[in-house]
Amino acid sequence: MHCVSCARNIESRVKKHPGVLTVNVDFVSSKMFVEAEDSVSDGDLKKTVEELGYKILEEENQGQIEEKKLVEQAKLRAIWALALSVPLMATMVLMYLDMMFPGQLWVEAILAFIVVYVLGWKAHVSAFRAVRRLYANMDVLISLGATAAFVFGIAAFFIEVPVFFEIAAFIMAFQLLGRYLEEKAKGKTSEALRELLELGAKTARILVNEREKEVPMEELKVGDIMVVRPGEKIPTDGKVIEGQSSVDESMATGESLPVEKTTGDEVIGSTVNQEGALRVEAIKVGKDTFFAQVVKLVEEAQRSRIPIQEFADKVTSYFVPAVLFIALLTVVVWLILGNWFVAIVAAITVLIIACPCALGLATPTALTVGIGKGAKQGILIRRGEAIELMGKTKIIVLDKTGTLTKGKPAVTDVIVFDQTEKGELLRLSASVEKNSEHPLAQAIVKKAQEQEIEISDAKNFKAVFGKGVTAEIEGRKILAGRRILMEENNIDISSAKYALSKLEGEGKTAMLVSDDKKVLGIIAVADTLKEETKQAIGELHKMNYKLMMLTGDNRKTAEAVAKQVGIDDVLAEVLPDEKVDVIKRLQEGGRVKVAMTGDGINDAPALTQADVGIAIGSGSDIAIEAGEITLVRGELGALVESIKLSRATFKTIRQNLFWAFFYNVVAIPVAAFGILATMLGPIIAAGAMAFSSLSVVSNSLRLRKIKLQ
After folding, report:
1. Ordered domains of the chain (ranges, CATH)
2. Which is catalytic among the residues 139, 399, 553, 611?
3. How many other β-carbons are positioned within 10 Å of the β-carbon of residue 87?
4. Cα–Cα 20 to 30 A to 618, which of 154, 587, 658, 670?
5. Catalytic: 139?
6. Buried b vs exposed e over 364-379: b needs ≥16 C-beta within 10 Å?
7. pTM value?
8. What is the pLDDT of residues 354-363, one digit of tens each?
9. In this predicted structure, what is the pLDDT of residue 333?
């Protein structure tokens, strides 16, 4: 495909094929995506496309090889075209100095013919096919302009007119140079996706009868035990069953620090094991893996179209016919004014200077680079439209559990009374709680284990529903639970009331610990804030977003967390279906754009209702399909990064479109009014046209270097 018009023409023809439901042809990646009924075969679609003069490559790697081959061929054609055009410029100088050598016109004609029709044959074939199919593309303009100049060069053999051979040659030479540079730059826009594909492991080392065997990834099955040595990639998503190590998950999450892994932890395929040897049970293979889902999501997002692009595409569809009309009108007007030289040169310049490709490339190149950049940083953008909507969003609604907080209770305070030591209080409470499955009990046991406190065996363990637990530790009765448990066992809690009220006021769950006589202390447990939450909320305030916490948790806890992070607007004790109503109310019938950030599971209905749903999670268990944007790292700082990326990408799209429109709106009238009506005019126009497309692609490539953190 030589321009966006080619892609749209293929779409139009394939859409008309019986049984085809949807079709999308992506000019940037040169890929076609079709959804069709079972009655439509690949052969039918291939035949339809090949009838238009295009070739279909079904294998991904075959396509990449062909792409490299085409870019190399384009480079050689451009070099030869420029090398043969330079002597033509020299002959033009000789002509002006009245120093022509014998047979000069023939030399010019032969050189120009080689450049225009031998090296530039693809443009003419593409133009012929387009005209035959009753549509116009960029190549129609190039072919017409170069051929018109060449024909007037031939006329110089018979009548006394200026020689246009050098104009014809330089038009095609600059077009070939521009196409080569554009193809090379376009290839770079998809580099992020190619890099993702290259990250995948090619083989896996599995255990068969306790002996290691290396197998291709295609043969790996769920349940296989993989052996992963230090420095090797983990072949697929799995669970560690033996060993401990640190794993570099930067390719998946964007987090530069290694993550500690031990028995029972899940690992993501294609991440790198760093220190110890691991044995990992495969739990997902093939298209079900986290990595495969990411690649699929990025491909789908990069070919998605956003509202602003629809407008540009509509303009592009009328662009070439409009340019042809303006060129014809230019000839007529200048002939009426009696200046045939300006009529010819100005019309050729109009044909050559116009650049619909810049309009067609403005949005998809920026989207491709931006979405690819996000994927490498652990920001998965499922729909390109989210990038545009994020820039219009005024309100960000945040869930509490799992979004602002870690979603796992942890011990926050250990308060002791009556000369009891903190370590002893933790030992007694952990010993009582170790048989309990309650999340709060597990948090206390975990805290004791972290401090390497020896946990004793408990006897006569008893869980009192909704109140706490009791047990005997080394012949001593220990109680751990709410104040009602203490009151029922006649334990005086007067010394603990102040601390108890203070902790509860902070939204923490306070657990009293006593023996059968007196209160020994209080252990407070809470769902603690994630590391980046406070800083991220501060940055969101600086970005002038209105923030709201929307949670099903109790009001006291919600308000305590909101106060900690600096969120003023809090709605607590809200059920999942009620969250949808809150989002609707905030949207004010579509007048206000609202983003919702949640864990992607409990918040799925609200994420769907929001203009931009942002799912936040951690590791391979994320519900990638839950939102328009998925933050793999699981920290709120990634939300700030996704906003920065969205803003930068949409800003680039606007810059590209402004430049593309501005260039054509200025350049075409300049050409038509004869301002460039000199022998160098069409040559300057050809260079400007090539620069226009290249500048749009180059501007999009700048997104690869933006800093998000």
Report:
1. 2-55 (3.30.70.100), 62-193+296-366+647-703 (no CATH), 220-283 (2.70.150.10), 383-403+529-626 (3.40.50.1000), 406-527 (3.40.1110.10)
2. 399
3. 14
4. 587
5. no
6. bbbbbbbbbbbbbbbb
7. 0.74
8. 877 777 778 8
9. 93
